[in-house]
Amino acid sequence: MMGELMANWFSARILLAGFIILFAALLLFLVVGNLRQNTTEAVLEIIRPDADLAMQKINYTETQDGQRKWSVQADSATHDLEGNTALVHKVRVVIYNQKDGDIIISAQEGSFDINGGIVTLHGNVILENLNGQSIMTEDLVFVDGQNLLKSENKVQLVSPDLELSGVGFRYNLEHKRLKLLSSVEARYRGVLSLP
Predict the structure, then answer these.
(1) Is the pLDDT score of 105 beyond 70?
(2) pTM for the complete prediction?
(3) Domain 53-188 belongs to what topology?
């Protein structure tokens, strides 16, 4: 009887040990398989050979008297320290305005002159505000010192009731004054009532 109990206990230990070894082998197989599948990715797809610094996920904010004026956010950037400029990719510029609401600008790429406070954007540039108005163009320049947004290219302005198109525009941020430069066309989608 004692011999039978010892034999059952011994076979249960062997069975448990075999299960543990099998489980450890399975875990090792899964870990090694996942390590082989995860290949390393390049940190930056575009690195200029003359760049002094390459970064991912940048966020630069300009302040005045403790208040945020504007910021540049980008997925990646290369920076030239001598010229103090950065080339940015997948860009988002926010011009802060507590009174009238922020202006948000997105673009595929651009350049950013830190000393001059000039942001030049290229490729599917979309400017939006909280009132549902948007401006679309291929190139846009923001000049901080002049509180100015400008473009020389074809531009389309869309609001809930009005659509404007033209070539070139200037928008004075301080005075909220927009000027289309040439080839202006307008489409009014609201209800027009004449006296």
Answers:
(1) yes
(2) 0.66
(3) lipopolysaccharide transport protein A fold (2.60.450)
